[in-house]
Amino acid sequence: MVLLLILRTMRHYKTEKIGSLLQKKRYELDVLKLVKQYKELSTAWANIPDPTLQKIKVNHQITQDNTLQIVCPSSVALTYVRQRRDIIESSLRGFMSAHLIKSLEIIIK
User: Fold this and answer.
1) Residue 59 per-residue DSSP state
2) Where does the pLDDT of residue 86 fall: very low under 50, low under 70, confident under 90, or very high at 90 and above?
3) InterPro entries attached here (predicted)?
């Protein structure tokens, strides 16, 4: 009887430990996917053929509803980035389709 209780306890402990390890690995995998995604986005942004866009320090965010947000630091930058929207969209089209990003939004901080 005691042996059965010990075996059940060990089985529960192993199952719980394996479950927590799997959960931790899933979290780490999600984080790695995000890091890879942002690295690809930075590379795609760096390949936009507009030197002025490269000088503007914008931030990029991907929202829960799969929208790519370009966050501009000032109204002047916002105006310029909005004027170059077509160039940006054509340059980022491959990245956006690979990551199922539906739309592009340009906003100010």
Assistant:
1) E
2) very high
3) DciA-like
Measured CA to CA, the distance from residue 84 to residue 76 in angstroms comes to 13
**How far is Cα 49 from Cα 91, in angstroms, rounded to an integer?**
8
Task: Decide: residue 72, CB within 10 A, 0-12 exposed, 13-18 middle, 19+ buried.
Answer: buried
Backbone phi, psi, residue 69, to 5°? -105, 130
Three-class SS of residue 6? helix
Helix axes 2-46, 85-98, angle to 10 degrees: 150
Give CA–CA dist 106/49, Å, rounded.
18
Tokens of 55: 């000088």
Q: What is the pLDDT of residues 1-26, one digit of tens each?
A: 556 655 566 566 566 677 777 788 78
Domain ranges of the chain: 2-108
18/73 Cα distance (integer angstroms):
46
